[in-house]
Amino acid sequence: MEPTLGAGWGGNGVVLVCDDTESIRRLLRINLELDGFEVLEACDGASAIALLRALQLEDRLPDVILLDAHMAPLDGWWALSEIRSCPRLSRIPVVMATADTVCEDKAAMLARGLDACVQKPFDPEAVVDLVAGFVREGRAHVPQLK
């Protein structure tokens, strides 16, 4: 049985926010919850993957995953690779928050399996709008980033 995505949990959808900086997780949580999203949190790539595996056992998954690119010991790029290698997780849109130039090169971004990138520092409202688009349209959403 394929796990259900988070929209069935109530609210506008479910977002996994993975960042090693607690204040960034809190900022995203507040903004996303104000828009009606349920927010799950992880502090590094390994804890994000562990949470996703546990959620698979419950046959439910988040609608969107927000990853910080640079975390220790296992970063967002590692987590992205794990997500894309798992058929049950690979359908979830993944947004990477980074200062890396990969966000400037759409082909490189797509080649790495990203659905979107947000440049740090980012506008939390723009991230909420981006998440909402992915919840509505899944990986088919084509973000219009500024």
Could you characterize the architecture of this molecule?
It is built from five helices and seven strands. With 146 residues, the protein is of the alpha/beta class. The chain has a single domain, classed as Rossmann fold (3-Layer(aba) Sandwich), CATH 3.40.50.2300. The strands form two sheets. Strands 3-2-5-6-7 form a five-stranded parallel beta sheet, sandwiched between helices. Strands 1-4 form a two-stranded parallel ribbon. β2 (13-18), α1 and β3 form a beta-alpha-beta unit. The longest helix has 14 residues, at 124-137. The protein is globular and about 35 Å long. It starts with a strand and ends in a 9-residue tail after the last helix.
List keywords for this structure.
146 residues; 5-stranded parallel β-sheet; two-stranded parallel ribbon
CATH fold call: Rossmann fold
Count of distinct strands: 7
- The CATH architecture name reads 3-Layer(aba) Sandwich
Spatial strand arrangement across the major sheet: 3-2-5-6-7
Low-confidence stretches: none
Give helix % range. Answer: 25-40%
User: Structural class, from secondary structure content?
Assistant: alpha/beta
Described by strand count, sense and barrel closure, the largest sheet is:
5 strands, parallel
Domain count: 1
With helices defined by DSSP (H or I, 4 residues minimum), what is the helix count? 5
Distance between the termini: 39 Å
Q: For the CA atoms, what is the radius of gyration?
A: 14 Å
CATH superfamily: Response regulator
CATH C-level label? Alpha Beta
What fraction of residues sit in β-strands? 15-25%
